[in-house]
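Task 17 of the worksheet. Students: predict the tertiary structure of the chain below and write it out as structure tokens. Keep your answer in the requested format; marks are given for formatting as well as content.
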Amino acid sequence: MTSDSDGPAQSGSLTLDRGLRLLELLAVEDRDMTVAELATSLGVHRQAVYRLLSTLRAHRFVADGGAGRYRLGLGVIQLTRQVSHELRRATAPHLRKLAHEFGATAQCVVADGDDAVALAVVEPPASVYHLSQHSGARHPLDQGASGLAVLMARKPDAADPPAVLEAREAGYAVSRGKLTAGAVGVAVPLYDGDGNSLDAAIGIISMVEVDVDHVAKRLTEAAGQIADGDV
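Model answer:
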């Protein structure tokens, strides 16, 4: 159990760190937790947890689950929506370039449970024959290149399908005709500036055969620019 009497120069950052770890804990455990459980898991005194909960509840990041238990609040959902908006804005210019360059539909998908959901879609401006896609479209993560790209960036699991293992080895995901007959999909995962997976991916879907290695290289370059905040 750590002391709660930290020096003034560090108390602010420590409080923020503990608050973020508390939210992460509630998200990972995916259940209502007591103050005692939170204090033990975080390695802090219960009084410190009460103070954190008071602030987080005021911002609706934590909600009272009843019987002295707490869970994530609706404020987290609103924050997630804002993050999705920022990701959409960050990827849009790169998707436009990719759609124009390859004459194919370019998209950014995010994970939502067991599904991949299209967050942003750009169709090629001059191609008559291309896949028509729309934001909000979803499909299982283990079907289609974009979903496989999301899965390949996660911690390896014994239950990972062969397609995910192949994507990890190659550094990108490829699918052919899985969701749309004749379509070729190529995708890579997205990471933040610190190399943490965003549980998202960018990719293209072409109705004609493409140079997969070249497309993957361009997608990887774009993903790196997105991580660095470059347009």
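Marker's comment: The chain has a mean pLDDT of 87. The first strand starts at residue 33 and ends at 34.
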